[in-house]
Structures are given as C-alpha cells and as structure tokens.
Amino acid sequence: MRDAVMAWVGLGANLGDPQAAVRKALEDLAASPEVEGLRGSRLYRSAPVDSSGPDYINAVAQFSTRLSAPALLALLQSLEQVALRERPYRNAPRTLDLDLLLYGDACIDSPHLVVPHPRMQQRAFVLLPLAELAPQRVDPQALQRVSGQSCRVL
User: Fold this and answer.
1) Do 127 and 146 meet the contact criterion of CB atoms below 8 Å apart?
2) pLDDT tens digit string along 19-39?
3) Architecture of domain 5-153 in CATH?
C-alpha cells in the first residue's frame, strides 16, 4: 500500500453561486474515502487574473491521501464535472476550478500534470490561503510580490 502524502489543492469559482460551490467542493473532498484530515482555509474574494468575469471565490484545502498524483487529479476533475465545469477556452470563467498545487515534495512535469503548480507563486489567491494552512510552504518574498493583487478574506 502507498504511503500517505500531504496534498494541497486550490479551489476557485466565479459562476453561479461561487461561495456555495467552493464550500461544497471542500465537503465533497472531505467525504472522499481517499482523503483524510482535510483542513480548509478561509474563503477569499479575488479579481480575475488572466481571465474575465465576476470576482472569484478561492480557498485552499490541505489533506493526506494515498492516491497517486494522477489519481488525485482524476478525483479533482470528477468533482469539477459534477459542478458542471466547462472549458470553452483557456482561463474561462468557471463554476468550479480545482488545482493540485503541491503533492508532498514531489516535482512532476508531465503533459497532464505539473506540480508544484506552475503559476502558484504569482497568485495572491493561492498564496494567501496556502499560508494560512502551511506557512512554511510559502516564500515570504513571493507573498510580497503579489501584495498588490486584489484578494481579501470574506
């Protein structure tokens, strides 16, 4: 049996009822038999980055899992599908977005998955909630670089 790995997932939504979508995704992750000890950050409101549409609601979840990184990605994508996520174009507004940010200390670079998430260091809506749960995983200089981005706790 695979050893458990600590994973961090970014959650976001800006269509429909984004607060409800993010809260439901946290509940659904916590209810998954492959997820143990889920902790969620507070919810944040942020302006779209490289996107359009209404403001996003964002959070980060931290949990332990025995799933491989590709299997965890598949679980996240299945939750997006349940939330009726559509992908008409890159960075389109969405009902739910779940990004695997960190998977233990793994570095993964495949056509389907890159971990650590390649843009997380450039986004306040990822770094601020991640710093709540795992401050040791966030570079203070990265936080300083994103300090001008619109992102506040709800």
Assistant:
1) yes
2) 999 999 999 999 999 999 999
3) 2-Layer Sandwich (3.30)
